[in-house]
Each structure stands twice: as C-alpha cells, then as structure tokens.
Amino acid sequence: MRHFTADDLSNFETRYRNYLINSLSGYKSANLIGTQNVSGQTNLAVFNSVVHLGSNPALLGFILRPTTVPRHSFSNMQNTGYFSVNHIGQDMIEAAHNTSAKYPETVSEFEKTGLQPVYKTDQKVPFVEGSPVQILCRYVNNYLIEENNTRLVVGAIEEVFVQEEMLHPDGWLQLDKGNVVAINGLEGYAKTALIDRFPYARPKE
Amino acid sequence: MRHFTADDLSNFETRYRNYLINSLSGYKSANLIGTQNVSGQTNLAVFNSVVHLGSNPALLGFILRPTTVPRHSFSNMQNTGYFSVNHIGQDMIEAAHNTSAKYPETVSEFEKTGLQPVYKTDQKVPFVEGSPVQILCRYVNNYLIEENNTRLVVGAIEEVFVQEEMLHPDGWLQLDKGNVVAINGLEGYAKTALIDRFPYARPKE
Fold first, then answer.
1. What residues contact A83, with CB distance under 8 A and at least 6 apart?
2. In a mutagenesis test of the B interface, which of A141, A192, A202 is the best target, namely the one with the most B β-carbons within 10 Å?
3. For residue B198, what is the nearest residue in chain A, using CA coordinates?
4. Could you read off the pLDDT tens digit of each residue along chain A, which spans 205 residues?
5. Which superfamily, per CATH, for A21-190?
6. What pLDDT, on a 0 to 100 scale, did the predictor assign at position B74?
7. Do A102 and B55 touch (CB under 8 A)?
C-alpha cells in the first residue's frame, strides 16, 4: 500500500492534496439543494455532505464551506426558512455537476444546466423535476466548526416524495432502484447496485 | 411518486420511520472506526456518517449518536487521542455490519467478527487488515447538536494508507478500484462503479 505521512500531507501541492483528501473519506451522498431568494430567484447547488442526524425528529445535516464568499443556498434558506434536497439520478449527473460553477446570484443554475424546477408544496421552494427522491426541509440551525470555519447546517425533514419502486413495505428505500448515484471526491459519480441488506446485528456468543 | 407529509412522518410506527428516514438522505460512506482504551482493549464500530470537512488542514467529521449509553469508540478516542478510519471493502460487509451489535466494553468486535487488527503507526490504534483505505486520525473536537443531542466529532487526518491501484497520478482515489462499498440506510451495502469523473465546473455563457 502507498503510505502518506503527516509531512507528506502538508507538503503536497494544493491540487494533489485537495483531490486526495476529498476522495479519502469514502462515497458521499449525491444531492442537489434547491432554494430561492425572497424575490423568487431560484438557486440550485450540488452537495456531497448530506448526513442523517436523527429519525425522530427527522433531521439531516450538511457541511457548508466557509462563508467568506457569498453562499446563495445558505442565505436563501435562512431568509425563506426552507430548502429542498433532491437525489441525483444517473441521467442527471453532468447537469448536477455543472451547478457547481460559480454563477452570480442573479443567474439560476436551473436555466444554465437544463434541470427543471418544479413546485410541489406550499412553500416557495423549487424541487428538481425527475429527481427520484425529493425532500422538503425547514432550515433549523447551523454550527460553526471553528477548526476551519465550515458549518454544519441542520434541517428538519417536513415532506418527502419518493419513487414508488424504491419503497419497501417496511419503509426502507432501496436507492439503486431509483438509479441514485454516489459521489467519489468532488467530481466522480458512481452507479450502485445493492449487494445485501442485513438484519439488525445482535451479539454473538 | 409517493408523498409523505409532516403528519405522516410523525405518525409512522417507529420502525417504519427509522427505516425511511435513515435511507432518505442518499448513499453514505462505509467506514470502520478502530480504537483501543488505555488498557489496550480494542474496539471496532461501523459508521456511515463520515464526511469531508476540509483539505488544509485535512479534517474529517462523523456523527455520534447521543451519549446516553456508553459510546466506546468515542471515550477511547478522547482518552488516547487517536482513532483509525478504515474503508469497508466488498469482502468484509457482513463482518463490518456485525460490529454494530451491542457488546460490552470488555469484548473486542475484532474477535467477534473475525476482522483482524493491525498496527501500522506509532500510535496504539488498530487498523483493519485488508481494508483498502486506512486513515490515522487525531481526535480534535466535538460539537453537540442540541436539536437531538447527537455530536459532530472532528478528526485531523495524520497518516494515510491506500491501495496503489486506487491512486491516480493527480492524487484522486478511485474508490471502486478498491471495491469500496456505499451504505444504503443503516443496513444495506452497495457495490459501485464509476460512471464518469468531470472537470472543475466553469460558468456557461
């Protein structure tokens, strides 16, 4: 195996270190977060850091990079109180990735990438048409991570839309049935296939 | 599509809600966290919430459930200062899942699951033999998420071991080359295959 020491990590050229460290923690969730500002201007951004925080109350979180530059998704959800989380299907990976280009706030990533906004709830929050799992979240809180000025943003899950064929009778969603992808680093998109689903693990004698 | 409202989510039977919400946020990273206590007793636990926090300094985080019951991994890393993060390969999914059974602190999940501990650095931290990516982390901090008493634990990446065939010349790790799996909910394990790796996205005219 290749071995990198702490000295290696700090001495790497920036780009090499970014590629390595971004891909180092394993597969990530592949989500598009949709918001709009108070004037109705929509915004759509790819995120690979959405995590499960709890089931009751139903909460999720994601990591926001330092707010030293404008973060339109974050300011929108703080101002309107809501955002959508949309799973990325295999047929939308290139458009999803292109939402990461830096557009000014007056430009909607929906228009630039060809993804279609759709309004499905009473809140003024755009969802992504065709996304296999669409979640309405209420913005709840954020925690500053003082080690590098990133933030953990917390959202409450309020409404859920899922493709019928993904939903098992016991509530479990089988993600590969919706062609949901996983992200490798910041820029690799992988298709997936369930190997096995295990029962709740109990101690062995 | 199936539509669940906020009322549906709060009225579901506990097990149904847990399965649904746990699988709702998309694919998760599949990692085994290895620690030992000050007496040398090893501990190994599966986590599906490891996220990238930053590249310089190289930081990762993971979500810890409420500490209302003993969390051996957490107390060990606070006491010794270190933990290992090991990617789960296709050949170890059942053993990895079985680390989630509730064993007392005096029992090592290594012994019960058949996974082999291996010591690779100066720190007294067990890694998982055969894991395609092995990371030594220094425990840095934790943030209490007051909405549900979970915690975001922050670790600094200090040493890295990766299978040669996963490493691209620019530093990017191609996870499927190491047969790294992704987790669907708490208990589904999926194999993966890279579809495409896209360049840094730039605005379109």
1. A33, A34, A35, A73, A76, A77, A125, A137, A139, A155
2. A192
3. A187
4. 999 999 999 999 999 999 999 999 999 999 999 999 999 999 999 999 999 999 999 999 999 999 777 789 999 999 999 999 999 999 999 999 999 998 888 899 999 999 999 999 999 999 999 999 999 999 999 999 999 999 999 999 999 999 999 999 999 999 999 999 999 999 999 999 999 999 888 888 7
5. Electron Transport, Fmn-binding Protein; Chain A (2.30.110.10)
6. 96
7. no
Q: Which helix (H) or strand (E) holds A78?
A: helix A72-80
In total, chain B counts a number of residues equal to: 205
- Both tokens of residue A42? 């929509």
Among chain B residues, the shortest Cα distance to A111 is held by B204
Our CA-based measurement puts residue A157 at a distance from the nearest CA of chain B, in whole angstroms, of 8
CB contact under 8 A, B187 and A198: yes
Query: Predicted ipTM?
Result: 0.96
Domain locations in chain B as residue ranges: 26-190
User: Which residues of A are less than 8 Å from B158 in CB distance?
Assistant: 6, 9
State both tokens at B197.
Answer: 């790796």
For A37, phi then psi, to 5°, come to: -85, 180
Q: Which residue of B has its CA nearest to A140?
A: B147
Protein fold of B26-190: Pnp Oxidase; Chain A (2.30.110)
| pLDDT the model gives residue A3 | 98
CB contact under 8 A, A26 and B103: no
Are the beta carbons of B17 and A53 separated by less than 8 Å? no
Q: Which of B20, B50, B170 sits opposite A16 (nearest CB)?
A: B170
- Rounded to a whole number of angstroms, the distance from the CA of B117 to the nearest CA of chain A is 16
The token duo for B99 is: 């680390």
How many beta-carbon pairs below 8 A join chains A and B? 374
